[in-house]
Amino acid sequence: MGVNGVPPDQGRRPAGNRRMLVAGALSAIGLLAAPALTAPADAAAGTLGAAAAQSGRYFGAAVAAGHLNDSTYVATWDREFNQVTAENEMKWTSTEPNRNQFTFGSADQIANHAFSKGMKVRGHTLVWHAQIPTWLNNLSATDLRAAMVNHINGVMGHYKGKIYSWDVVNEAFNDGGAVGTLRSSIWTQKLGNGFIEEAFRAARAADPAAKLCYNDYNIDDANASKTRGVYNMVKDFKARGVPIDCVGLQSHFGNPPANYQANIQQFADLGVDVQITELDIGGGGSTQADAYRRVTQACVNVPRCAGITVWGITDKWSWRSGDTPLLFDGN
Ligand code: XIL
What is the pLDDT of residues 107-146, one digit of tens each? Predict the structure, then answer.
């Protein structure tokens, strides 16, 4: 395609229409990395991860252990990406299905592959209302609090010193209601709204080397009430010394809002990194490619935007595969 001087025949990018998507993201990274991208001899910069690394960022993907026997899948992961998030394997149902019995088989498959390749690993996720085991349901508040801290210690302890960032709390804010309303869950019902702060404090103690993130969807628009609620929480945490290092914008959308970069900037201005953690964009063709370009450009334009993770490698295994939302098609 020759977008921004990227040669069309490097042999390192996907064939077919999806090439346009990767080129869209690459062209945005290329605005900072123009010298390497315009030098065909530097083939390594023609991958997403290498291009991102030129400004100290990463470009990663969510990976599922069940697909690791697919050599094309693994080859694409290894070639294009320098960060990984386990799509489901580090969630509570996977890591502690029974109380205090920790299992890391499939999580380790992904993490150890990534460590061996020098990739960053984002831990996802410690405290969430979904994909949690039923044994949590009938505990007293005291017991649930102990179980939460024990889970944080057990999972973070297993990977201590090796994880780049952890999604400590996932999706705690409500989609509707007044600014700052939390989603009703076992966590709010038994522990109250303070569970978020308690989780972050426990997480800092469990692995002081990991960046601690709050991660959510529909917080991409700078002015949305859900975004304002998360913003106020981060501001409050920073003011009171509650440990938090990053905000994860999941970014599952059809199109990034017009103020997406301003949103990244407003969180960065609070003194936290921003990570685009689960990017996928429904649609197709040049509209979709341009949306990928705009998201990537927005990250590149804000120094504290640390990197981008797309939520899967190939459309055929995307959680929303009907939207063909990823950079690579089924082939
Ligand atoms: C999704 C996975 O992609 C699916 O395989 C699983 O069935 C459900 O969870 N927000 C998150 C992710 O934080 O963990 C979710 O991942 C997608 C929405």
Answer: 999 999 999 999 999 999 999 999 999 999 999 999 999 9
Per-residue pLDDT at 11: 29
**C-alpha span between 213 and 167 (Å, rounded):** 5
**Percent of the chain that is helix, strand, coil (3-state, to 5):** 45, 15, 40
Rg (CA), the chain: 19
Pocket-testing residue among 84, 85, 88, ligand 1, by greatest number of atoms within 8 A of Cβ = 88
**pLDDT band of 3, cuts 50, 70, 90:** very low
Cα–Cα distance, 30 to 27 (Å, whole number)? 5
- Smallest CA separation from ligand 1 atom 9, residue: 88
Residue 250 beta carbon below 6 angstroms from any ligand 1 atom: yes
Q: Indicate if 171 belongs to the active site.
A: yes
Of the candidates 87, 89, 171, 198, the residue annotated as catalytic is: 171
Angle at 170 between CA 166 and CA 175, to 5 degrees: 150
Residue 120 φ/ψ, nearest 5 degrees: -75, 150
- Neighbouring CB atoms inside 10 A of 90's CB total 27
The verdict on the CB of residue 319 being under 6 Å from ligand 1 is yes
pLDDT digits (tens, 9 = 90+) for 135-159: 999 999 999 999 999 999 999 999 9
Active site residue 87: no
* Cβ 94 under 6 angstroms from ligand 1: no
Distance CA(281)–CA(255), nearest Å, equals: 7
